[in-house]
Known about the structure:
Helix content of chain A is about 25%, strand content about 35%. With about 120 residues, chain A is of the alpha+beta class. Chain A has a single domain, classed as CATH 2.40.50.100. In chain A, the strands form two sheets. In chain A, strands 1-2-3-9-8-5 form a six-stranded antiparallel sheet. Chain B has two domains: about 65-80 and about 345-444, Alpha-Beta Complex (Aspartate Aminotransferase, domain 1); about 85-340, Aspartate Aminotransferase, domain 2 (3-Layer(aba) Sandwich), CATH 3.40.640.
Amino acid sequence: MSTRKYSRDHEWVLPEGENRAKVGITEHAAKALGDIVFVELPQEGDSVNAGDALAVVESVKAASDVFTPVSGKVVAVNDSLENAPEQINQTPMEAWLAVIEISDAGELDALLDEEGYRAFCEQED
Amino acid sequence: MSSYIPIGERERGAMLGDLGLSGVDELFAQVPPALRLDGPLDLPDAMPEMALISHIRSLAEQNCDMDHCVSYLGAGVYDHFIPAAVDHILRRSEFYTAYTPYQPEISQGTLQAVFEYQSMICALTGMDVSNASLYDGATAYAEAALLACRATRRNSIAVSAGLHPHVREVLATYGRFCGFSIETLPLDNKQGTTIIEKLPEGTAAVLVSSPNFYGVIEDIAPLADRAHEAGALLAAGADPVSLALLKPPGECGADIVVGEGQALGNASSFGGPLLGFFAAREKYLRQMPGRIIGQTMDHSGRTAYVMTLQTREQHIRREKATSNICSNQALNALAAAVYMTLMGQEGLKRAANLCLQKSHYAYEQLLQISEISAPFSGPFFKEFVVSLPLAPTTVNEALWQRGIVGGYALPQGGPENGWLLAVTEKRTKAQIDSLADAVKEVLA
């Protein structure tokens, strides 16, 4: 069973199958942004490096970049968010943005686990 | 608080000291010396108020405005009639003194006016969404090019040679600094309309204007088809007055419609301020520059207006904003909204029809003069080109002696001795007849 990893920019990464991972934003981030009204998704086939802007989530207050915590190729995007961006507020841990074919699995090791991320958020607050 | 802070030697010295500079010359060292003033301004001695008023007035009287001459000058800025109510509303201090008047708690009037403006622009252009306006038509075209590059992830723009030369210059400047290249689409030299032979690979948009700079109406639909076949967008420029008669570009396949909105209730002034309008299909909403005013409901269920989409502007998105312009042209957009409301659908149609009829009458009268010919055969709305047997500037000088502002002398690269005339609803038959007589006299 794969375990979810977290970035210090408040994204989650859920490895699945061989060399693939879903990326989304955390509940903490979704709460901080407020009601999300639009999501700008990447295109399938885009190549991204860890730390690159992967998507833009727009709330009533701001439009914010979502950074990819892992490098690789975008192999799927969650189109359902285009018409129902509120899924990110309702179920942030399920509302994935994109699936990345990971080019360097080692990058996952640099990310936080659930406990580490919780401690990071408390420290940030 | 003091309302006026003078700058004396002491203040100047303190500021230069803070900056670590030895003098004003060092402060302006980056400005090339040839552009710097090398002495004090050459001003006359101080005058008593009475003498000053009379002096300034005599200077002002050397200006001529559209109320004191008969003008056939267009080329981007047009002399349409402006009902008095437009100015009356514009001059309400609630509208003209407010700076960034967008707080919904206190600015419902301004917000509603901009909302109405957007709705009417959408109706005229056949588009789904309009922004709250941009600075002028030229930057609206440039923003259309940028939107197309973002939406298609391409970076080449095909620009019709029929676009206003000033607009093409602005596009070239934006292209140079924003990283898109420009391919020019030629005009058919008989019709005066844009030809697409082949679109280069990676074309993000085809930019065309109808009527074009030479006044000729373009057939947008086939151009849009060619653009779409190549995976590019079609951005159409339009004269908003002409849209009261012509099929909206949105019904001809355009994805973006932009243009200069001055003709809607804004005075020619001295060539500005102008009003850029920008409308697009809904799928490009999030890629649009600027802001939109939206209609919503307040906590008691009453209709209310708020600014939306500003989340993508520079003050929030910084360098990732959709545009480096983080403002709009609120007072000019208000003038346009008041004008369109006063005219109504029928009124605007009648004004447009008068432009059409009168310009064609002028065209026929001028072409009866044997030395004058028409270089283009394409249909036109209110502006057209004729070729004169001598330099148009010579004819214009002679007309000016008779109180007539002649047409625009076309630059090199266009028809030889090309003279671009605009005839709006303001011109009377008698005025047009005397134009033709005066031209005949000058050419005789």
